[in-house]
Amino acid sequence: MLLQTRGIVLQSIPYADNKTIVRVYTEQLGLQSYVVNISRSKTAKIRAVVFQPLNQVMLEVKHDEKKHLHSIREAVVSPVYTTIHRDIIKTTILLFLAELLNKTLRHEEPDEQLYVFVSSALHMFDLKDEGSANFHLVFMLQLTRYLGCYPQAQEESRQQWFDLKEGVFTTNPPKHPLHLRPQEAEQLSRLMNFGFDAMEDLRMTGAERRLLLQHLLSYYELHIPGFSGMTAHTILETVLS
What we know:
The protein has about 240 residues and is of the alpha+beta class. It folds into two domains: about 1-75, CATH 2.40.50.140; about 85-240, de novo design (two linked rop proteins) (Up-down Bundle). The protein is built from six helices and eight strands, in the order βββββαααβββααα. It has helices spanning about 90-105, 110-125, 135-145, 180-190, 205-225, 230-240; strands spanning about 1-15, 20-25, 30-35, 55-60, 70-75, 160-165, 170, 180. A hairpin with a 2-residue loop joins β1 (about 1-15) and β2. The protein is elongated, with a radius of gyration of 19 Å.
């Protein structure tokens, strides 16, 4: 069956001579894997540059429900990012988010709301001039809405602790070590009040940003089955230091 769909590239894995396996989160088919013939020729129908991490693409695919690997007939980048690939901070954040999504989006079923969220967020990231250093934090937190584990909002000022296991703010410290102390919980509470449109107003030091990232990764490990082994955050922490 031939069909056209938009997609977001999650990962490209060299497979054989001139062949690559590409994992794409598509709008119509959900998460899919494709075998792509790659040519380095400037006149090639499909070029490797199309499948850079988190590129948004328009695909014509040959889909066979009986197979796990499908094929791509045509692929073009759409829209083309204007700033991301020219900004070292944005590029590093993009690589981190590609690994994050690759470890969290594991189901084949399409999810229109999730697709629109990721696509719109990346588009806004490309257009934003300020606040780039906070984008991954806002993205990680907002993504948990679609993964079904968004933290419960702080209801009163006395709730100064945050229980990572239960995803709630508490008045007293939880009786287990998986929690945030008041100062750390305050940073998370502040983050919950900022969206992509105002992330430049989220003032944090590099140390606070790194610590909050570690807490969010711990939260993912507790709430997303099988989530572990992130590595790109170490490079990200260096770039944002």
